[in-house]
């Protein structure tokens, strides 16, 4: 396979029609590992937008994001015969692109830690944390003025919000994906929602 990828970020409205079930994505993954270019292209089309949006939670450098995604898919094709089984292609790709992007960011900012994304955990230990998160989910999902508020969040909070409301991960899945305990997930989401509420208070948005 020669010059395989020309990075073209699809329109989000198109991406909604490209959603794969777990069975479909695993089937495509296995076929791609057996040299099926069509299956590989299908995976790319279905997940390039998700990966791009996920990367924007860590950097505004669009060129770097596109380069990382391009390199990831090139490497996947080059090493397809040595790739293992996976129960979730989506999570595999997201974890892979995060590692690649963080390595690039660390190379550009050598005075950061190996996991450049800050760990701004807001330790809000309260019995009502779970109910408070649930009560505010509808607010997050339905608001049309979130972009500015999201950009003001610490990166770790922004990532948790992205995973929960854009990728639709459960709290348990976020815990596994971000390699943090479940209480930290609650703290991140609850803290992010509180921060977003404060940022949007001037718009008289009520929860």
Please give the structural blueprint.
Elements: H1 12-15, H2 22-33, H3 37-55, H4 62-78, H5 89-108, H6 129-142, H7 146-151, H8 155-166, H9 171-178, H10 182-199
Largest sheet: none
Please report which band the strand proportion falls in: under 5%, 5-15%, 15-25%, 25-35%, 35-45% or over 45%.
under 5%
Count of alpha and pi helical runs:
10
In angstroms, what separates the terminal alpha carbons? 52 Å
N-to-C SSE string, H for helix and E for strand:
HHHHHHHHHH
Proportion of helical residues: 55-70%
- Spans of at least 5 consecutive residues whose pLDDT stays below 50 are 10-17, 111-136, 138-144
The CATH class assignment of the largest domain is Mainly Alpha
User: What oligomeric state do the depicted chains represent?
Assistant: single chain
The Cα radius of gyration reads: 18 Å
CATH homology-level superfamily of the largest domain: RNA polymerase sigma factor, region 2, helix turn helix motif
Mean pLDDT: 76
Q: Find the CATH topology of the largest domain.
A: Rna Polymerase Sigma Factor, Chain: A
Structural summary, described in words:
The chain is mainly α and 207 residues long. It folds into 2 domains: 12-108, Rna Polymerase Sigma Factor, Chain: A (Orthogonal Bundle); 129-203, Orthogonal Bundle (Arc Repressor Mutant, subunit A), CATH 1.10.10.10. It has 10 helices and no strands. The chain has helices spanning 12-15, 22-33, 37-55, 62-78, 89-108, 129-142, 146-151, 155-166, 171-178, 182-199. 26% of the residues are buried. Residues 10-17, 111-136 and 138-144 have low confidence and may be disordered.
């Amino acid at each position: 396979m020669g010059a395989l990828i020309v990075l073209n970020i699809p329109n989000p409205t198109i991406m909604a029609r490209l959603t794969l079930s777990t069975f479909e994505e695993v089937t495509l993954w296995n076929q791609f590992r057996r040299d099926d270019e069509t299956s590989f292209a299908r995976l790319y089309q279905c997940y390039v937008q998700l990966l791009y949006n996920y990367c924007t939670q860590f950097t505004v450098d669009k060129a770097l994001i596109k380069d990382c995604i391009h390199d990831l898919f090139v490497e996947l094709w080059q090493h397809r015969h040595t790739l293992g089984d996976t129960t979730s292609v989506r999570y595999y790709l997201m974890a892979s692109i995060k590692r690649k992007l963080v390595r690039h960011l660390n190379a550009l900012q050598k005075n950061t830690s190996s996991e450049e994304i800050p760990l701004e955990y807001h330790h809000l230990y309260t019995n009502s944390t779970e109910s408070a998160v649930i009560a505010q989910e509808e607010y997050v999902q339905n608001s049309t003025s979130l972009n500015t508020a999201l950009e003001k969040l610490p990166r770790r909070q922004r990532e948790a919000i992205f995973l929960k409301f854009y990728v639709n991960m459960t709290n348990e899945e976020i815990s596994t994906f971000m390699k943090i305990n479940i209480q930290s997930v609650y703290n991140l989401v609850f803290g992010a929602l509180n921060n977003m509420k404060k940022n949007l208070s001037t718009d008289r948005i009520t929860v």
